[in-house]
Amino acid sequence: MKEHKYSYKWTLEDAKFTKDKGKVFSCFACGGGSTMGYKLAGFDVVGMNEIDPKMAEAYITNHKPKYSFVEDIRIFKSRDDLPQELYSLDILDGSPPCSSFSIAGNREKDWGKDKKFREGQSKQTLDTLFFDFIDLAKELQPKVVIAENVKGLLMGNAKEYVRKIYKDFDQAGYYCQHWLLDASKMGVPQRRERVFFVCLRKDLAKPFLHQQDMFTQVPKLSLDFKENPILFGDIIDKNGRDLSPNMKKVWECREQGDVSMEKGSQRLNGKSSFFSQSYLYIDKVAYTMTAHEDSILLFDAPKYTSREEACKIGSYPLDYNFVGKKPHYIIGMSVPPIMTAQIASSIYDQWLSKI
Fold first, then answer.
1. Which residues constitute the domain of residue 45?
2. FRET pair for 84, CA 20 to 30 Å: which of 143, 148, 214, 273?
3. Mean pLDDT of the chain
């Protein structure tokens, strides 16, 4: 079987970060999932912006950034005292909070509303933060902008936001493209679909344009990953927390093929419940790691996923210091490092190394 480009079993202590591919700044940085991906791909991540002080603590503890701005991006983008180094970035990275577009949320009902979320201390209108991020890109003018978001952004009425994203990036001076990528095809041990917007500054794009079509041309970039899937059986250790007695009764009513505990609940007491608790099978790729520790559990043992299983599913380093926070929360809120590493290395090979 072909080797994976990046190992999902890795540690910060043993990783060799060359820092020779260019400079990156990360917004909505969370615990540093994307930051670790850029580092694995050889980039130097010089700083971060994150609104949540608890997340920022984990980021700073593990990454010790040169610049750290723990504040609302609306404040950050309006600063007139930003370090000059941020005006010469190779990549500006960001994962604007996206729960209002998630297919699991209220979607349209929440659009345009101010909300106070766990991610920060101030109220924000989540569906406008993407455009604050674009404002920052317009100010800093990095060579490349990469923005990650949920699959739901491409569905239904949310498509209007995508059109506005393209329009605003165009006005900021960038060619914009987007891809829906599946982490399980990129060397990550989970099925996680995310949208990535990748934008190249227009004055750098000429060598990568299709000259034969002047009106619909975009800079050529291939993001086609075909890594072999990593099954949950490859990472299982059964060292996670035991299910409660009541949960175990439902678990004991499971049958092969059940996606969640819902059918077991119906068999036990005739009621539909526990539909958000999904089973992990050893012969399948794990489901998307969420921020909720009890959302995925083992089919082969009455247990939740362990810390090490969660790290491997999320391609997080096994020695990451969670500074007392729940590993599942930080990992679930983060872009899988290997997912970012694959994209960053492709952009370097196809664009940045030739500019």
1. 23-228+336-354
2. 148
3. 91
